[in-house]
Each structure stands twice: as structure tokens, then as C-alpha cells.
Design brief:
By secondary structure, the protein is α+β, with helices and mostly antiparallel strands. The chain has 3 helices and 7 strands. A 5-stranded antiparallel sheet has the order 2-3-1-6-5, covered by helices on one side. Strands 4-7 form a two-stranded parallel ribbon.
Amino acid sequence: MNPMKKVSIEKLTLNIGAGKDTVKLEKGIKLLKNIVGIEPVKTVTNKRIPTWGLRPGLPIGCKITLRGEQANTLAKRLLEAKENILKESQIDVNGNVSFGIHEYIDIPELKYDPDLGIMGLQVTITLKKPGLRITKRRLYKTKLPKQQKVSKEEAIKFMQEEYKIKFGDAE
């Protein structure tokens, strides 16, 4: 197989949205720190939406982005929480895999924490092929050729081979 066609994980992002609720935000930060062991970053609003009570600079969620081997090992644990079953609709046309975990206690090796209660989180796995650097480098930045983009079919094949994912009727 051509090494330039090999699909791999670029990054794994864990996200918890809390809205204006600062108590839920603090619980979300504690949960992500328990899962990964790294302090998450707060996400803030850019727009003012008066009907929702949002203003620029207001923290509304938290996230952690992992890359490399750390992303690979955590992805295996998170997919086990979904019992290695996903829907095809959870993969977009660019090869990104997104799914939610309703209760963090479904994740292997995590115990129930009475301070947190029951919380869920959103997981996004971004896939790539070698050569993505041409879109991010400083000099001679160019568009990614079509054959270097990860298609939905390639993402499905990668998930089946790498993580033994079954695609069917998940909850």
C-alpha cells in the first residue's frame, strides 16, 4: 500500500458544553481532568446573544485536544464505552468521527464520583493522511489535493480495521 494513503488519527478532542451554568462548567473541568490527567481549556463566547444571556468572553464550556499515542490509547477506551458500535451518520464527508458518551461511568477504569453526578461528553476523532502539512506550513502554503483528503469510506474502513468498530444501529 502507498504510504501516502495510510489513514491515521490527527487529534482527539473531548468537549463538554455547560452554557452559562458555572457549576456545570467546574464539574466538566474536573471530569475531563479525571479522564485525561491534563487541565482542560475553557471555551468562551465570541458573540452576544441576549435571549440566551450570552456575552463575549463568557466561559460556556471546556475541551481537551490530544495528539499522537495519547490520542490513540484514549480513543480505544472511549470507543469501548460505546461498545465498539457506531452509526455511519457519526462520520462526516471529511472523515471526522463524532459521538457522545451519555454517562462518563461507561468509560472503562472510571469510577462514579458523587461530586460530579452523572455527566456526558462529546468526542471528536479527526483523521488525516500524510502530507497535511502543506496546508499548515508557513511558506508555500497550498490546498490539499483531493486524493489526500480522508473520505467517509476510508474513515469507515480505518475504524473497522484499527478499532474493530461495527457500524449498525447504535443508541
